[in-house]
Design a protein that fits this description.
One of its GO terms (molecular function) is glycosyltransferase activity. This is Glycosyl transferase family 1 domain-containing protein. Pfam families: Glyco_trans_1_4 (PF13692). A six-stranded parallel β-sheet has the order 4-3-5-6-7-8, sandwiched between helices. A six-stranded parallel β-sheet has the order 11-10-9-12-13-14, with helices on both faces. Strands 1-2 form a two-stranded antiparallel sheet. α9 links the parallel β12 and β13. The protein folds into two domains: about 1-155 and about 325-335, Rossmann fold; about 175-320, Glycogen Phosphorylase B (Rossmann fold, 3-Layer(aba) Sandwich). The protein is built from twelve helices and 14 strands. Helix content is about 35%, strand content about 20%.
């Protein structure tokens, strides 16, 4: 893959200007965010010569020209984007002849018949599309008509040097983090109400943008910088991540960050999540939308802090073995270089 003179592979990473890699790199240098680039994609430089470009949102004229196939002339050379929305922006404003992209939400949209035809058509022109959940592979291949786009799964990874093991706390605290569209605050709050009725001394901190009223005793935080979030994980006895049914393993980022901090997790057993959380070894997987089962899993860990700490230690080992950004990027590059 590399010659003695350096990487033989060259590619471009295109990302949204709202999440500038250059700005992120400066924040990382100040110790504020994990990884040098978003999602740890700076590790691409271990395998390739990488050019980074910013993608501004397309204006009305650009969108109209794209619909009429009158956009700018496509540029050669392989370009990567993290997700399908960024890929669509790129193909609208800076089209590429050769591109590959991650796919996150589109498989769930296809399940409900809501996948935009223009997005599906765009993906059908990609050289490759990768997903972070094995459960997405076949649905994506089916959605693309088993065409020429290569579809493969990559294990997600986090910055294990930013999220590090911390001493297990001596007071019970439940922490929940997450804002994406598949989080399930209703089930979370119902479960926490049950737990606090039985263990009123337990603290509960929830980072969410949900408008639902939390039960008494639950502290809600609307936004938290990465460095503060890292410290919040360290105060947790257990990190809980309830989600609605989905294929893209919503919550995997929080799960891996918590495990890297040596904290056990309780997470909804959606397709693909078993890749990241091992039942009874690093945490517990519970049925979707079942507050009673969720509360029981939390109480089980609160009642046995020694076992909970052991699960957290196991989780840290699993992250180091399987779920770092370096492992993720190496897997991504192998998938991109695999023969068609």
């Amino acid at each position: 893959m590399e010659s003695e003179g350096g990487p033989s592979l060259s590619l471009t990473w295109a990302h949204r200007v709202e999440q500038s890699a250059r700005t992120w790199e400066q924040s990382h240098a100040r110790g504020e965010v994990p990884s040098i680039w978003p999602y740890g994609l700076d590790a691409l430089r271990d395998h390739a010569a990488v050019e980074v470009i910013d993608l501004a949102p397309p204006g009305r004229v650009a969108r109209a020209r794209a619909r009429l196939s009158m956009g700018p002339r496509p540029v050669d050379g392989l370009t990567l984007t993290w997700d399908e929305n960024t890929a669509y922006r790129m193909q609208t404003t800076h089209p590429r002849t050769r591109f590959a992209t991650g796919v996150i939400w589109l498989t769930d949209m296809a399940e409900t018949g809501e996948a935009p035809a223009r997005m599906v058509a765009m993906l059908g022109r990609a050289e490759a599309a990768w997903v972070l959940s094995d459960a997405q592979v076949e649905p994506l291949r089916t959605m693309l008509g088993h065409g020429p786009t290569r579809v493969f799964a990559v294990p997600f990874g986090i910055d294990s040097a930013f999220f590090v093991p911390r001493l297990y706390p001596d007071r019970p605290r439940i922490v929940s983090v997450g804002n994406d569209r598949d989080r399930d605050p209703a089930t979370l709050y119902a479960a926490l109400a049950r737990v606090l009725a039985i263990r009123p001394e337990t603290e509960a901190v929830v980072q969410t943008r949900s408008d639902l009223d939390p039960p008494e005793g639950v502290r809600v935080v609307r936004h938290m910088p990465h460095a503060d979030l890292r410290d919040l994980y360290a105060t947790a006895s257990v990190v809980v991540i309830p989600t609605r049914p989905n294929l893209h393993a919503s919550g995997m980022t929080v799960a891996l960050e918590a495990l890297a901090t040596a904290r056990p997790v309780v997470v909804t057993d959606t397709p693909g999540m078993e890749q990241y959380v091992s039942e009874g070894r690093t945490g517990h997987l519970v049925r979707p939308e079942d507050p009673a089962e969720l509360a029981l899993a939390l109480l089980r860990l609160l009642d046995d802090p020694g076992h909970a700490a052991e699960l957290g230690r196991n989780g840290r080992i699993e992250v180091e073995r399987r779920f770092t950004t370096q492992i993720m990027v190496a897997s991504l590059v192998r998938g991109l270089l695999a023969p068609a």
